Amino acid sequence: MTAVEIPTSETGGGTQRFPADQPLRLDSGALLSPLEIAYKTYGRLNAEKSNAVLVCHALTGDQHLASTHPTTGKPGWWSRFVGPGLPLDPERHFIICTNVIGGCMGSTGPGSIDPTTGRPYGLSFPVITIADMVRAQAMLIEALGIETLFAVVGGSMGGMQVLQWAADYPEKLFSAVCIAAAARHSAQNIAFHEVGRQAIMADPDWRGGAYDLYGVKPEKGLAVARMAAHITYLSEPALQRKFGRELQRDGLSWGFDADFQVESYLRHQGASFVDRFDANSYLYITRALDYFDLAAGYGGVLAEAFRRARHVRFCVLSFSSDWLYSTAESRDIVRALNAAGCRASFAEITTDKGHDAFFLDEPALDSALRGFLSAAAERRGIA
Amino acid sequence: MTAVEIPTSETGGGTQRFPADQPLRLDSGALLSPLEIAYKTYGRLNAEKSNAVLVCHALTGDQHLASTHPTTGKPGWWSRFVGPGLPLDPERHFIICTNVIGGCMGSTGPGSIDPTTGRPYGLSFPVITIADMVRAQAMLIEALGIETLFAVVGGSMGGMQVLQWAADYPEKLFSAVCIAAAARHSAQNIAFHEVGRQAIMADPDWRGGAYDLYGVKPEKGLAVARMAAHITYLSEPALQRKFGRELQRDGLSWGFDADFQVESYLRHQGASFVDRFDANSYLYITRALDYFDLAAGYGGVLAEAFRRARHVRFCVLSFSSDWLYSTAESRDIVRALNAAGCRASFAEITTDKGHDAFFLDEPALDSALRGFLSAAAERRGIA
Lengths: 383, 383
Description:
By secondary structure, chain A is α/β, with parallel strands linked by helices. The first copy, chain A, contains eleven helices and twelve strands.
């Protein structure tokens, strides 16, 4: 295993490179090497190595959990929850966030150089799964010299990684927080992703995935994909409350400009997304999500996935207006955890903000996370 | 007014041409001429001219209500409800269905020849509204020599036309049936349409709307638009019931082919749609829907739109799993009808089929429609 220096500054991280003789074994049967994992850390690992928290990001997230995003210059995607006195506190926790494999922020993905050709992988990158992402994270955690994570935490696709951690590496977990996720992708989830993929692939600048070689990007297709997905992140009532039928200008344009504020908002979401995200990564990560069905590896019985995780303290949280991964799906997870004999606390947070409540100012989420992690820290002796 | 021969055969219709001195006055202020309205009829107008039923079609529908579609060769979109012994019975009713203006099946639309240039309108076609569609229908009804419609019936966008008829031409209505519709487009409705429009406009073969001149069609963009919209026509439970995570083949492809049946189904929906529908018509008709807000013309008070319709018998129907135009929106319509002093019967039909239940085998819809129209026919003296 490659040695890595534990960051001693408040904010650390870098890129962990695994050489060719340490490939990532993928669910597809392929081997991915060399493997690189880009990550950020906040806080210091304590002497007992008992205070490490892994935060797993969602579909379009990255390792810039709580530090300025290098492309957008915006605060990290979960800055709201990470900091002194916040639920994830660098004074107490050693917080790690990795870019998932398949991503486009430094971890090995379709934009990385394929060592066999010397050119970007493009569509020759192997299809990856949520379990593959987690396997890569486990390699990093081991490289960092950490045997047990105090907590693994994530929302949306991050929550799916949390469930996969509980299934595949329960011995490495003390607690687990799964927010606004599901144990499998539904037909509707797959349908929305397929629309996005078709939009990308319909863009002539996609060039069969080889756009890097031509110096172009399928920006229009990727923007449409983002727009379609973005609708699923917001609840209908929140859209109505935020935008309703409010116009951009006085009166209608009687044309196809953005007349309504919601149109302008969506166009902005699409346009700004293409500046920070890669189209092929979008294809691969949505595919990983669609392939996700945790119970499938356990004869269709979700509880079986959690049999070895009885010692793990689970917290499952959902949002009442989330129609992407609904409360019913979180309840299915809790039911399976209970059936497996795991300790699980569950809360449905009442909000009209939909799936995206996970990123937003939602005091009930803050207090649920804080309460669960504080109680777990006491048990862990790191309070 | 141009004379038109009333079809005496069981199935009739044709194209009504209004000359340049009889333009359609549009809400935008523009005049559309010459105006053509393509329509089909079923049954015969009785001597009293009291048995005419106008059926208004939805976004991608057309005049081929109950006869074979000329492009697809499939039965008309509402054949299930039109025929001897069915709720709409050519033995008793004179049933009329027109292609909306802006459409692509013979009525004047963006694919028609602009008389000022001799070339297809493309984006120089004026933006139209639901009220414009209804105004054109009223011109046809008058040309057919019909003073009062026994009923105006429609679902989805057809239901919006029904509401607009009640607001603009209540004196011409005896009864009105509004199925799975809303009195205005919500922010979420607009958002989904904007995704579709952006998908079409992102297709380089759209050519700024002038694709007809280049002998190409923005098929990929239009297919993506249809796929995104199609998801909104189905409920999540119906998608799960029909497709779940069922695969196309044994095992996953580990690639980007359609692995899941729901992907294949959506791709088929997109691919078959482009054979029968025009991209610019899709832009114009979705715009008309987004502009629809019936109360806006009445100081924001929907009831005021129905003040002159107290003599009209209304039937409002919704589907419990319709999340495009939900039961709550039908209830808003009923509340406004009640506030205006109109007679309105309302039923929410329990089904998991979502918005598309309107087209499907839904016995409760059949019996609600049959019951309402029979009672109205008795009152009208045409039973």
